[in-house]
From TrEMBL:
Subunit-level organization: Homodimer.
Compartmental location: Cytoplasm
EC class of the enzyme, as a word: transferase
Catalyzed reaction equations: D-fructose 6-phosphate + L-glutamine = D-glucosamine 6-phosphate + L-glutamate
Active site: K361
Name the UniProt record assigns to this protein: Glutamine--fructose-6-phosphate aminotransferase [isomerizing]
Entry function: Catalyzes the first step in hexosamine metabolism, converting fructose-6P into glucosamine-6P using glutamine as a nitrogen source.
């Protein structure tokens, strides 16, 4: 049942090449220049004309929502707010005519996300779902939606569902941008081609497994970890930290790299490893300065870089190279080494990676 893997989590990490491909299958055809999302056909107009998009989700799905915020703003120029479902539902949120709510959930059974959707619906919002489990409560409660088709995810730590959510959200954002004419036809086609290349780029990351195993051995006894990234890689930093804390029980924090100087920098010493996600994007130079600041304070750094980076290896303790892609799709690639890092550290610490203590796969309580 684990297909030769020791744990479901590892199996699911390695399934991502396939699951991202499956998620695009029958929807995206770069050669023909087509992107069809039948699941949201009836409410497509609402999305195209939305004044604002409100994303509600929890945990890893909330991190996918943060990436989607950047995508919708960059591609489709629609303002986006990303809400923890649990906060949204207990406030008295302002929902205006013309707002579209997108609920993201792997299980489709998360109680807080369901309640947030009910609240939004009761105030007249159109609610679209991005779910993995077909026929789940969230899928049924949505007006329409797009399934992630990642296949069953057994490990409590979400991995392949996350990258499939990013794939679906990228497709929705691109389709919306195409209708709104906020992306030129040429750029749109370039993005479709690049999205089709993501499964192969994810597969490339599996070649890092041995190196990440060695790094894990060196850092497995750390008591704290900091994860830093900027732009599209900021949610990846949050996701890397969540993966580590939930399965290895090491305290980890994710921060936008530029926020370091507003507080977390006080924590830096030899005992506080810092994982940077510093791929070649528009914030690269700034993140390089942050790495230097950590090194100057005796911190040990592990950095996810774009293949061929010549600068960061000179300052970092360890680098892991991922293939180049555009800024918006980098999270699907750059998260993979972080999933592997948390997995190996947790295994080395003797933790039950598939069923960590105190956690359930679907959180059906409030
Ligand atoms: O099924 P959902 O996507 O709605 O679940 C949301 C969170 O409970 C979930 O992502 C949780 O944070 C995972 N254990 C993260 O790995």
């Amino acid at each position: 049942e684990k297909g030769g893997f020791e744990h479901f989590m590892l199996k699911e990490i390695y399934e991502q090449e396939r699951s991202i491909f499956d998620c695009m299958r029958g929807r995206l055809n770069a050669e023909a220049g087509t992107l069809t999302l039948g699941g949201i056909h009836h409410y497509q107009e609402h999305l195209i004309n939305a004044n604002r998009i409100i994303i509600v989700a929890c945990g890893t799905s909330w991190h996918a929502g943060l990436v989607a915020e950047y995508m919708f703003e960059e591609f489709a120029r629609i303002p986006v707010e990303v809400e923890y479902a649990s906060e949204f539902r207990y406030r008295n949120p302002v929902i205006n005519k013309g707002d579209v709510v997108i609920a993201i959930s792997q299980s489709g059974e998360t109680a807080d996300t369901l309640a947030a959707m009910e609240l939004a619906k009761s105030q007249g919002a159109i609610v679209l779902g991005v779910c993995n489990v077909v026929g789940s409560s969230i899928a049924r409660l949505s007006h329409e939606g797009v399934y992630t088709h990642a296949g069953p995810e057994i490990g409590v730590a979400s991995t392949k569902a996350f990258t499939a959510q990013l794939t679906v959200l990228a497709m929705i954002a691109l389709k919306t941008a195409w209708h709104r004419k906020t992306l030129s036809e040429a750029r749109f086609l370039e993005y479709l081609c690049e999205l089709e290349r993501i499964p192969a780029k994810v597969a490339k990351c599996f070649e890092l497994n041995d190196k990440i195993t060695v790094i894990s051995e060196l850092f497995k006894d750390a008591r704290n970890f900091l994860y830093l990234g900027r732009g599209y890689n900021f949610p990846v930093a949050l996701e890397g930290a969540l993966k580590l804390k939930e399965i290895s029980y090491i305290h980890a924090e994710g921060y936008p790299a530029a926020e370091m100087k507003h507080g977390p920098i006080a924590l830096i010493d030899e005992e506080m490893p810092v994982v940077f996600i510093a791929t070649r994007d528009s914030s690269y130079d700034k993140v390089v300065s942050n790495i230097q600041e950590v090194k100057a304070r005796g911190g040990r750094v592990i950095v996810v870089v774009t293949k061929g980076d010549a600068l960061i290896p000179k300052m970092a303790d360890f680098v892991v190279e991922v293939p180049k892609t555009c800024d918006a799709f980098m999270p699907m690639v750059s998260v993979v080494p972080l999933q592997l890092l948390s997995y190996h550290i947790a295994v080395m610490r003797g933790c039950n990676v598939d069923q960590p203590r105190n956690l359930a796969k679907s959180v059906t309580v409030e």
